[in-house]
Write a structure and sequence with these properties.
Layout (H helix, E strand, L loop, with lengths): L5 H14 L13 E5 L3 E3 L3 E11 L3 E3 L4 E8 L3 E2 L4 E4 L2 E3 L8 E5 L3 E4 L2 E3 L2 E4 L5 E3 L2 E3 L5 E2 L7 E3 L23 E2 L2 E3 L2 E2 L2 E4 L4 E5 L2 E5 L1 E4 L5 E6 L8 E5 L3 E4 L1 E6 L7 E5 L20 E4 L7 E9 L4 E4 L6 E9 L3 E3 L3 E5 L26 H10 L13 E3 L2 E3 L9 H8 L1
Parallel strand pairs: 1-3, 1-32, 2-4, 2-33, 3-5, 3-34, 4-6, 5-7, 5-8, 6-9, 7-10, 8-11, 9-12, 10-13, 11-14, 12-15, 14-16, 17-20, 18-21, 19-22, 20-23, 21-24, 22-25, 23-26, 24-27, 25-28, 26-29, 28-30, 29-31, 30-32, 31-33, 32-34
Antiparallel strand pairs: 35-36
Length: 417
């Protein structure tokens, strides 16, 4: 229990009185992101993203040519747009490291419809490029590129706070392996291995726990999410090892949708001094590839890999498709010919609800502590928090317990009255 000295009471009470009503900058919610990674987010050529979500990284965002992105883009560091791509959405780069080189850059034929908020230099090749929107940069930062329709201003920036990654849930795998076509109900299982034309059906809302989920070869397999005509509830998949699927077709049956499916994967590459190779298809927590067949590879729902990389790969001209969102505590790498449709998760992925994301550093040194700090920066109106069982709240204000230092009770009581 926190002890507060008499001198500290007034600033705490003043802060709490305003914390839930106004903040200079609110921390973003990871559920608003179609792609989000703790390390670099890399999108190779011919990537299509739709659905009006956000994409971002706590490091750099790196794109390649011939992509069409309909999403706001956020980077804690830098953004490289490469060339011959179209972007619909606002673009923000915080430049947390205060680098002095180009923070936002792009080559020819970059078409942006949205506003730019960049803490540093911007350099975009004007040949075939356009910015339909405004540009705001930090004081003293240079701009080289096509003339933005909304003009260019330099000033003090109010930069967004990047979202905290979700909590990591705990679970225990079962003992029964699954091989071949099967229909299973919620429960704990071990390894799932599927082969050509085989189908795994998850029947009913609830939690499914696996050791791993893989398929042999590159022939098409199917995974069906059977919601059993339930209008409520979700399908949660917890995997201790990896998910590695090549040429899989996922679908919902008997109701349901991608925004009611959540997958959490705890695979971690424990090889010491392992080389971080984007071309590697093995050392990934979640690997999805199109295989060699005519079927598009489809996955549904939000995927959260707290300890490992996520990689999406297409073979030849076949498109790899995902409807949902991808979040990684490591890196996300998406190769060419991928289509991602944002389907925002409509439930809390955490077992603790309501959940208040921890500070970036895990704790705060300020007077009111981590819990109240995060309450003040992560929420909207208090009335919007259902079933709040963490804080005592009255009239949109937080009630705290104040403990007097020895010998200060009378003085504290008089002070508060």
């Amino acid at each position: 229990m926190r002890k507060l000295s008499l001198a500290s009471i007034l600033p705490i009470l003043l802060l709490l009185a305003v914390a839930t009503n106004a903040q200079n900058q609110q921390q973003q919610n990871v559920k608003d992101f179609v792609l989000y990674s703790a390390k670099d987010l890399k999108l190779n050529e011919q990537i299509k993203i739709t659905g009006n979500g956000n994409l971002g990284s706590k490091k750099n965002v790196i794109l390649k040519r011939e992509s069409n992105i309909t999403a706001n883009i956020f980077s804690l560091e830098k953004i490289d747009l490469d060339k011959e791509s179209t972007f619909i959405g606002n673009i923000t780069a915080n430049n947390f490291s205060n680098a002095t080189d180009d923070i936002l850059k792009g080559d020819k034929s970059i078409k942006i419809t949205g506003n730019l908020l960049i803490n540093g230099k911007i350099k975009i090749n004007p040949s075939g490029s356009s910015v339909i929107g405004s540009v705001k940069q930090s004081i003293g930062s240079s701009y080289a590129g096509p003339s933005p329709t909304g003009g260019i201003t330099n000033g003090v920036l109010s930069l967004p706070i990047m979202p905290a990654l979700p909590i990591v849930n705990s679970f225990t795998v079962g003992t029964a392996n699954i091989n071949g076509t099967q229909t299973i109900t919620p429960g704990a299982y071990r390894d799932v291995v599927l082969d050509k034309d085989q189908t795994l059906t998850l029947k009913g809302v609830g939690t499914y726990i696996f050791k791993s989920l893989t398929n042999k070869g590159t022939d098409n397999i199917k995974i069906k999410f059977d919601f059993n005509n339930s209008a409520t509830g979700q399908i949660r998949i917890f995997v201790e090892g990896k998910i590695e699927l090549k040429n899989v077709t996922a679908s919902t049956i008997n109701g349901g949708s991608a925004n009611r499916i959540y997958t959490e994967i705890h695979y971690k590459n424990n090889v010491i001094n392992s080389i971080d190779d984007d071309e590697d298809d093995v050392k990934n927590a979640f690997f999805l590839a199109s295989g060699n067949g005519v079927n598009k590879c489809i996955w549904l729902g939000t995927v959260w890999a707290p300890y490992g990389k996520i990689k999406i790969k297409s073979a030849g001209s076949t498109t790899t498709k995902l409807e949902g969102a991808l979040w990684s505590g490591d890196k996300i790498y998406i190769e060419k010919n991928a289509e991602i449709i944002y389907a925002p998760l409509i439930f809390d992925p955490n077992n603790i609800s309501p959940y208040y994301a921890p500070p970036e550093t895990g704790k705060t040194p300020n007077l009111i502590g981590s819990e109240l700090t995060q309450l003040s920066t992560n929420t909207g109106a208090i009335s919007s928090i259902p079933n709040n069982n963490i804080f005592f709240i009255e009239n949109n204000k937080v009630i705290i317990e104040v403990i007097a230092e020895p010998g200060q009770y009378a003085a504290l009581l008089a002070y508060l009255q």
